User: Fold these one by one.
Assistant:
Number 1:
Amino acid sequence: MASVELHNIHKAYGALTVIHDVSLSIDDGEFIALVGPSGCGKSTLLRMIAGLEEITDGDVSIGGQVVNAMTPRERNIAMVFQSYALYPHMTVAENMGFNLKLSGETKPVIEQRVNEAARMLDLTKLLDRKPAQLSGGQRQRVAMGRAIVRNPAVFLFDEPLSNLDAKLRVQMRSEIKALHQKVQTTSIYVTHDQIEAMTLADRIVVMNRAGSSSRARRSSSTASRPISSLPALSVRRP
Amino acid sequence: MTDLASSVRLTTGTKIYLYVSLTIIAAIVLIPLLTTALGGFKTLGDLRTNPFGLPVEWHFENYTGILFGDRYWRQMMNSLIIAVLTVFLTLSVSAMAAFAFAHVKFFGSNFLLNYFLIGLMFPAATAILPLFIRIRDLGLLNTYWGVVLPQVAFGLGMSILLFRNYFRNLPEELFQAAFVDGCGYIRFFWHISLPLSRPIIATVSIISFVGSWNSYILPLIMLNSDSIYPWPLGMMVYSGEFGTEWELVLAFITLTILPTIIVFFLAQKHIIAGLTAGAVKS
């Protein structure tokens, strides 16, 4: 677990700047949601925190350490992708244990951690299956399991529920909430679904189309007492 | 075909047209093969009077004579060694090169790729003299490597192209997930890309195996001792020796085709669609 600090982050692709000067401070154990319209750069911002995208200007610190030049592994983050991104040739257990195997953990340790995570996510019976034999919700749970087994400093979620149907989405939302309450790991959650953001997050960061963020407020107060017109327009009942 | 048949009702005319045209094409492929295989069971007289029909009397001794002689097995073994080395080297070199072209951005990568692809335009025959001189200078004349290395070099262009296109079509998220999990390029290649590339590995293997198995001109130039001749050269010597005994030549040809067919059927079952099913939401 660790705090995350963003200092004057910029992202440009050639002459096109997509993120303008975003600064944000996320406390240890906090659950933050990044919301905003499509194309506003919220996923790009998340990928910069993950280390999958280079930072044009500014600093990202995790646990007080600037991580700009570090690989995702060195940053000790775990990411859940919108498309699950499970390895199709591995079983659920292998998928979940893959990062532990890469870091040289012994078999009994991997097995124990995978079983623990599987129990937490109700995946114990599915450990021997391949991703193709799972439903969408189960695949998403495996993707989350893969993130928890390594006990990361920060969880990053990139619209993890947008491929699920409405009913499953509500169920998974409460599972993510419960999971966060259990493990208390700092989490950053990108979504364009404001209900998802409001039910899950401690604070919501609203980004506008120009790729800069409005200041974040407690999620309960964002809709009722917005601090500017942007969150007021972005976060309202559909 | 099944999709077409189940979704569109075909008229009788179309059906007749399909069956007739497919039968003709199948016949063009199968009749020479069958004629060759059956010819091996005939006597020379039978072959002359009845080239296409079933043998009047089945003579298995043509086949058994070849199978129990050491010449056939020696040539098969030579061909097999050359083909296996060619396939192994082509697969490992082209897969690694294609992975670099598909995933690593570096200065001059396009130029380098095009350089490899130029190789597609030249058949080995056009470069036979410089090749011979080079192989002679390397001291590889009359060795397996003298045939294998040029074959691998000429096969690289096509194999890199096939591998690169396949690697580029693997979902981008898989690479990112692996990167987050702690993979570098090499581990991603080994643990993720290769296990998912069975169809393309099988395809490249078949192309390169069959190419090497049937290769005639390169061994002809590079090899000059009977003991390391692969079967096409052995065939030449054999038909020179038994030029009038066509039934033996036909039996020999039939037996040399067999390994290619076996390899094809073994590799074919790996060329299956949907291997990446379940990786990402499509």
Number 2:
Amino acid sequence: MHEDRPLNADPSTAAARTEDGIPAPSTILMRGRSLLALVIAPRWPLAAWLEALDAQTHRAANLFEQRPVVVNLAAALEDERGPEAALEALVALAARNIKVIGVEGIDPAVLGQTRWSRLPIIPPGRETAVREDVGAVPPATATAPAPVRPPPSLLIDRPVRSGQSIVFDHGDITVIGAVASGAEVIAGGSIHVYGALRGRAIAGLSVGAAARIFCQKLEAEMVAVDDRYRTAEHWGADLHGRAVQIRRDRDGLRFSALD
Amino acid sequence: MGKTTSAAALGAALAQAGQNVVVVDFDVGLRNLDLVMGAERRVVFDLVNVVQGDAKLPQALIRDRRIDKLHLLPASQTRDKDALTEPGVERVMDELRQQFDWIICDSPAGIEKGATLAMRFADVAVVVTNPEVSSVRDSDRIIGLLDAKTLRAERGESIEKHLLLTRYDAARAARGEMMKVEDVLEILAIPLLGIVAESPDVLTASNVGCPVTLHNPASSVARAYDEAARRLLGETIVVTTPAERRGLMSRLFGRRAALA
């Protein structure tokens, strides 16, 4: 069994450089992330709506578990109690352990000196159907037609030939076959090669350090995960030709044999 | 690398098997096929003339003096690859298709216009490679282009690909100085059409201007091309790796070593 070895990153890769080649004093890495939040729109009378909500969560117990939720409170403005009605809804949701990360359809300032007033207003995003049964809870979210989401992974079921470049920044790439010398595979997520990896593999364009590279036979020219790369001369001959997993580890890349 | 030698040898072998064959030289500017086929003094019109409409196809076709069914469409030596146009090549190919069973396009080296036009209208590709890393990687690139840039690939159909390994030296492969057949096949992952051994016969044949299958039919090289042609015609023949040719001394020595 091969021992895991953290490889320290080359200092030149660790810090970004300014235009004249002098390392910038400090660099903050920023990354965009899109995530899926559920949008729910309470309706008044609230008691009836909450009853329907409870019935729904009873059917799908983990519906709101670990999911950020945005509450659309536009309907509260039509209620004669106004902000008070909105507060009532937020308190009821909190009691059900639903994690509200923002509100829309209302100015949080009208919620007065409560903890809810500091909630951010969520800018309008792209409406997406999460699950068919979710649509039944807040009818308002189900009305928008769901745009076709790009598939989260790309399957290449033939060898990647020298000179070819496969770029898929939405997710993982799986290659059934070899990646030839002089070919490159670039993924937003992880890269899986069921064959020999002889070219370049660059993973984590969008997910960053969470990405990994897997191959059945490591003969690569270069591998990179997130912002760290290694060329063939950096990993030992004992890993050459073996099934290997490559991931980010502190300041470098960690190579570990899978066989 | 052996593309031109192989085109001439396969063409001659197919013609000897009774097929109507034309071998087209796409190496405009560096033509060689006419020399290898011994027709250099018979060239009047060439591929560029036909593509550009300056000559009719029958005027440019040269019939081989040894085999009736073998024809050559030579390239132009005084022009360059830019003289070829895709619609022009397509028209010539369509015209040849009506006349011949096999149109063998001898591609120039590289991945530029001459090579892309040579492969553009192909139904079957024979990738000629030598057992060395640089050649194998170049071939891999070509296979990628065959799967992407040919008309069949663009129409979503697949193109039949075969590997012809030439200049194979069994002794050097055994010593580890050359890539092994299985290593080449593992990298390129296309079916093997044949293995042609490194042999002085090849040079001799091309110097006298005769496809190697005609010049010395008994040689191992001629047999290898002949078998490759029959595999192209659909026959099932097991591919044999050329054995190491050893002198009497080494044979004796080898046997003694094996006994010891």
Number 3:
Amino acid sequence: MSSIAIAVRLKAPDPAAATALSTMKRISPEETPDLLQRYDYWEFTGIECTENTVREIVEHFDDIVNPNKQSWSFTPSGGLPADDGDHTSAGVLVTDREDSISENWTAILKRRGFPVEKVMHSVLWIFGFSREISCTRLKSIVAGQAVTSRRDAGLLANPVSQTVRLILEEQAGDLLNR
Amino acid sequence: MARGGAGMSTPLVAVIQFPGSNCEYETKAVIDASGMQGRIFRWNQWRELNDASPDAFILPGGFSFQDRVRAGAVGAKERIMDFVVERAGDGLPVLGICNGAQILVESGLVPGWTSGSVQAGLASNHIEGRSGYLSRWTFLKVSDHAQLVSPWLSYLSGKVVPVPIAHAEGRFVFFPGDAGRIADCSALVYCDENGEESPDYPINPNGSTENLAGIMNPAGNVLAMMPHPERAFWLWQVPIRTPGEWGDRRISANHSTAISISRGPGELFFRGLAESLAVTASEET
């Protein structure tokens, strides 16, 4: 079974990412990245699922990628999309524990004859740091902003309804899976 | 300091308007129609809110901050919520309707088992064969414990009321380890017109845990509910084909001039609050 992942982002500045970054600055000004990007992250899994399969899906369904306003790229499964700058990056992958978007797309693609057994939709947040930052510090900032434990702590995921996966370069692990 | 401004005798209910709220005016209107004074405060008017010292708070429905990041997540972190959280801790009534409920959940005000901690989620609708945004009428009944402690629910005792929903993320979820105490926070549950519960669509319209339509904090003064009582305040708002008592009332009133002023099932929520605040005021005097 192989998994092919793509990351989809707006060509224009993403308002959700802008709001998230300004909210982080307000609740914890010392714990914010210099840059925050938001991607829709799709992972397609199937025995015969290849990059060509996914390319065909993307070209066929503009609900997944609307070429007028979105760009996309293949991404290492469980990894980060290619960096477009000089930032040190880390990612937070947020997935609903029960997700009808993923279930519906799995059903649609199977029905349409694509060799896909499972579709998983997530939101991938990329934290960018232009300053020198230690791995420990980076991990602390990303982990702190990833999970909403209290009203004044964390933002990107509600741990009750969502799972969070922290992605560092060359390193991935479950941040939270209660 | 006297609540409700400078010794006002009419209870003041603050309606908090976030960028993207879209039910604040009809919410204020039904507060006024219930004999209280509704006043809309924008999210950045926390000083004005503090000065006005309201007797109760309502977070209305809508799409605060365009549901960016996650419904209610950004609104919960606004400074005005500091004041709402503080006053909720003092025991003042707080109601979150739909997006307001999402903000209360993300604020940790409900279920509120551990003060300030986020212990519930309002996840996307998820039920066999149905997903996404859903707008329809549902039936609700109040939990036994809630009708005794919640100022919003005292008039719903033993009643089944039709109230509409309109949401994409309305499924109450909890950590598996909290399953044993969900009943403690249960305030409103979805049911059919006879009061029978079912986890299946359409009685439970979104797959909510334990058929929950609303949950409250342990003290009962904070209620987060997904259905919109302000959209069922007047009898004419109830669809004429609604089964049960309220549909019968609607049909009976259909050709009466009184239908324009006849109260609907949603009014019971606000009548309970008005009575609660009047009692509080008389005790203070």
